[in-house]
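Section 3.1: Structural characterization of target chains.
Under the original work plan, the team committed to producing a structural model for every single-chain target entering the pipeline before any wet-lab resources were allocated. The record below documents one such target. The sequence was received from the expression subgroup and is listed exactly as submitted; it comprises 149 residues.
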Amino acid sequence: MEHTERVILTNMCMIRDGTKVLVEEKVGKEAGGIIFPGGHVEPGEPIVDSVIREMQEETGLTIERPKLCGIKEWINEDSTRYVVFLFTANRFSGELTSSAEGKVFWMEKEAVLKSNWIWHMDSLMKIMDDNEFTELYLDDTNDWKPVLK
């Protein structure tokens, strides 16, 4: 039995500043709402280094000591597993700057789920903010399931 599979590795990070969190309003083909910034892990790149790099590229901020808090994953139609490593960070430096990925701005944490959010932000908040569960998985019935409550 083969124990390898094709995998796409990505990351996402909720950066906190007191009662506010940094969100990104996506542009382009994935436009339509807010989400936390993130991106792809480059071949051979450590996962933590990737989230530090992506936050700097998309927000202008250099985060310190990002904390891995969970994952979101699904299987694409071509059988590739897509994994999003979810992080939080509350230590950062630099000047907030938007990128081609979208406009970044601070939002009161309590207002996030009252806004126009995308990509299962409600479940992501349960992982990244509430620690209610650690994994969000799209099962074979096309339903998102929380794992490890």
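The chain has two helices and eleven strands.
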